[in-house]
Hints:
- Helices cover 24% and strands 26% of the residues.
- By secondary structure, the protein is α/β, with parallel strands linked by helices.
- Strands 3, 4, 5, 6, 7, 8, 9, 10 and 11 form a nine-stranded mixed beta sheet that branches.
Amino acid sequence: MADDVKNPADVTDDRLLGGRVRLLQPARGYRAGMDAALLAAAIDARSGERVLEAGCGAGAVLFQAAVRQPEARFVGVERDLDALALAERNVALNGAQDRVSVRAGDIGRGFAGQGFLKPGEATFDVAVANPPFFDDPDALRAPAPEKRGAWIADAGLDAWTRFLLKAVREGGRVVLIHRAERLADLLALMGATAGSFQIRPVHPFADAPAKRVLVRAVKAGKAPLMLLPPLILHDRRGDKHTAEADAIFRGEAGLGWL
């Protein structure tokens, strides 16, 4: 894998997961951050399982998850053709051609009929997403055009949850990260089809409200909902991250489920 790839001025060449992932991504617009790292750490794929990411962008979640789960296979779906082109380049840069692939598709059009499954393929074991955080473009100051697709869910959060649940087999798992204030919406949207919910709040500080939630659901699951211990990102001593969060971001620990 060459280290001297020539990139346009609007693309940066970054390292994630303690340097184990190489990611070409836009210099402006949506860039990989904490949410992508946490979602990748929360994917619980087993040996031989197939994982689908809805809205994969340049592949920050895909490649971090592929390093963490070396015996699973990953497929990313992305509608932005520029982001998809970067993801395709990143597949080669990370030497992941045998386990990671990306395909064009629009979450708002649903899972069926877009050709995400190749002939003979079954539905996926796990489906994951970091959906756009807002449904209503009037709910916030208009984002820059290059960030709009990452911030505004044109078809609404319900389209994302329907897509993920259609993508997995019965007994398959769906894992999402979203704003904590949308937790009730996520549970309501998935509750008719999925169960066995596990929820892990993510707090900026131990004495501050959760800003994010990681939610795991099982299609046709029947187990009671479980609220798991929170992840605390920072302490008040001035350290960048808590020891637990730092280990997760460096790839030395994961975010397990029960």
